[in-house]
């Protein structure tokens, strides 16, 4: 019974880490905060409610972090109406992605952690900042100066200290508070600490009241709202606020190998290489992974173009995901069948995990990139 309960908890957490990020494109702020919270507490849940050995989960945990941030980046293609803010977020995302790729490619314990300080994850908090603005205001009103200042503030005053704390000093906030504030060992249960330090409860109440007062004061200083609060990304897309986005981009060419296909290959290729470094028992080289990913993406694009020429278009993202997933799984199974004849082998479980995430990412990218192009493509 215990093993059944352990597995039930495990799969509930893993499925939540797969499914919750899919909410981000439609409900960006609640979606990414929920994904962030689940990422923060998943191992605590396992340690509290199961007796599972978490050693094998570490790689999947890191892969799922990259997965939900990739979904967040793709959501900016769908939702963001401020072109300059989007371009800043695109730079921040790929800057971090390159840094994580370099870290994983050169990793030898304890690893070149200074790379994660040089390539901090500013994208995630910048995404949250933009979505907070969009709750009440038209993001188009964000000037270039304000966008850069906010990105710099997040980079310098939030992410650099956080990256120093986590990756350079390798400190855990919970352990630090227990040992340095309460003076107890790191494994002391929270209930025991609270029982011996009853002053914490009124202190937290006072802190909460002060935070509410501060928020109310800040709200009075903010400019008038452009619309009523909504967490739905589609709630105000066509609402007139008087602010007009004047930035434009060049439209993609009709050539098969264009900027869209190139970015898709780069995005999924980097993500897949990172997955390959952190998942256990991956035997393929980085070059083999990059070539395989490019082949799968190009093949999927060929199939989509062929269907489009025949007058068939994907009406629903779920349909596209199921069809492309079946094709990609079929390719993997065929490859797994033929590889032993050439003296090779693959870890089928890891490969299928790759294919699932790859198909999800490609499906969302194909659905939302045209929205970005239509919104910002220069006319005439």
Report what the structure shows:
The protein is an all-alpha fold. The protein has 14 helices and no strands. Helix 1 packs antiparallel against helix 2 (28-49), helix 3 packs parallel to helix 14 (348-376) and helix 4 runs antiparallel to helix 6. The chain is globular and about 70 Å long. The N and C termini lie far apart (67 Å). The mean pLDDT is 84.
Shape: globular
Percentage of residues assigned to helices? 55-70%
Percent range for β-strand residues: under 5%
Would you identify the regions where 5 or more consecutive residues have pLDDT less than 50?
none
Number of helical runs?
14
Biggest sheet statistics: none
Beta strand count: 0
Q: Rg to the nearest angstrom?
A: 23 Å
- The whole-number mean of residue pLDDT values reads 84
Q: What is the distance, rounded to the nearest whole angstrom, between the alpha carbons of the first and last residues? A: 67 Å
Structural class: mainly alpha
- Topology as a string of helices (H) and strands (E): HHHHHHHHHHHHHH
Feature tags:
380 residues, globular, mainly alpha, 0% strand, 14 helices
Give a brief rundown of this model.
The protein is mainly α and 380 residues long. It has a domain at 249-380. The chain is 69% helix and 0% strand.
